Amino acid sequence: MPVPRAGLDAATVVAAGAELADEIGFAELTMARLAERVGVKAPSLYKHVAGQDDLNRRIAALALAEVADTLGTAIQGRSGRDALGAAARALRRYVLDHPGRYAATAGLTATGPEDPIAIAAAQGIAPFAAVLRGYDITPDQMPHALRSLRSVFHGFATLQATDSFQWSADVDDSFDWLIDLVDRGLRATPAP
Amino acid sequence: MPVPRAGLDAATVVAAGAELADEIGFAELTMARLAERVGVKAPSLYKHVAGQDDLNRRIAALALAEVADTLGTAIQGRSGRDALGAAARALRRYVLDHPGRYAATAGLTATGPEDPIAIAAAQGIAPFAAVLRGYDITPDQMPHALRSLRSVFHGFATLQATDSFQWSADVDDSFDWLIDLVDRGLRATPAP
DNA sequence: GCTAAAAGCTAACATCATTAGCTTGAGTGT
DNA sequence: ACACTCAAGCTAATGATGTTAGCTTTTAGC
């Protein structure tokens, strides 16, 4: 398998795209700019990536995988409210550190269960499941609890990422408050 | 003030853009397509709207105002868990009915307090504040509670809008579960 | 060394947003 | 009634974009 004049690779291109998106914003990420960044002309990118849409989806999948990894290590050795707080803080930190990649995950529709995005998203659930194991959740309530956790965290992270909080109150305090809210709600879960 | 060969207006253009975005998706909304929709050539749109970015922001502001209105009427005559559920359900319905407009509100950064987006967003808070009045929230906790509510609802609505829930469990049930979770958390709010 | 295939290139095209400048038509003041 | 104004809409042009087609080059394996 010949590998000419390279240093370039699908993974490398996607990684560079994610990095560039973090720097200049996801909306400003363009094939031409990415090509220049990796030292290549725009059409050459198509040897590694099917197009802009494919690139975006791969960046999103990368971000989701990284989030899953980050959250997984964040909750290791913790449980209950402690794990909840650690996971939440890790996600927030990730979004602040990688706003471009994370923005790529917004507004995506998985084409099917085989879509890398769907797979990455499914893996991203695992840490949340681990957190919930510290609470009294019956198995039949697990899917609802997972979706709820995901909604809460995703909602706060995106609002924060887009700078949608306009008042002066400290965002960290609000985040702690939100975590406490969820923790209270989870601990008060009734067994129906 | 002469008003020639018309039927066109800034508000009309924005409304048509929002409608078109709902039909074909926000990402597919283009100046050319919108021009064709309103029966005009693309450059003519610039007589009513400063450009694509301006158009997007105006659509977002429209959506935020509509959301505020919808939520406001949804909670009238209700309070507590009842108001919470009604507001949540109204938002969800809105996002499902108007996915394009709502997508326009994601990933926007208000340029300042005078930005129509900031104003519309501020008005959108009011219904949430009304809901929270039915719970025991101290004034200094209000901002945190508002942000939390916004995060929760926005998170679930966007995940749902982008079809990010892949498992088979009924989404409506999950939504009810989430509302209960928040309700329990709010009722258990401690007085610090 | 020779060959095959992948990587990268140039050229070209369609589409898009946007600007500049012209044309036209409706309302206003006399 | 009539001319004047000025904004709505147009055509033409520009630069940037994503993308495709086809050519050239480089490297790995025989």
Question: What is the topology?
Answer:
The structure is a homodimer.
Chain A: H1 10-24, H2 31-37, H3 52-74, H4 80-97, H5 99-104, H6 116-132, H7 142-161, H8 171-187
The structure holds a DNA duplex (30 and 30 nucleotides).
Helix count from the secondary structure assignment of chain A: 8
Total number of distinct structural domains of chain A = 1
Biggest chain pair interface: A-B, 48 and 48 residues
Return the CATH topology of chain A.
Tetracycline Repressor, domain 2
Taken as a percent bin, the fraction of beta residues of chain A is under 5%
Mean pLDDT across the residues of chain A is 88
Give a count of the beta strands of chain A, DSSP E runs of length 2 or more. 0
Q: What order do the helices and strands of chain A follow?
A: HHHHHHHH
Can you describe this structure?
The structure is a homodimer of 192-residue chains. By secondary structure, chain A is mainly alpha-helical. Chain A has a single domain (10-187), classed as Tetracycline Repressor, domain 2 (Orthogonal Bundle), CATH 1.10.357.10. In chain A, 64% of the residues lie in helices and 0% in strands. Chain A contains eight helices and no strands. In chain A, helix 4 (80-97) packs parallel to helix 7 (142-161). Chain A is elongated, with a radius of gyration of 19 Å. The N and C termini of chain A lie far apart (61 Å). In chain A, 43% of the residues are buried. The mean pLDDT of chain A is 88. At the A-B interface, helix 6, helix 7 and helix 8 of A face helix 6, helix 7 and helix 8 of B. Chain A binds a DNA duplex (30 and 30 nucleotides) through residues 1-6, 8, 30-32, 40-44, 46-48, 51-52.
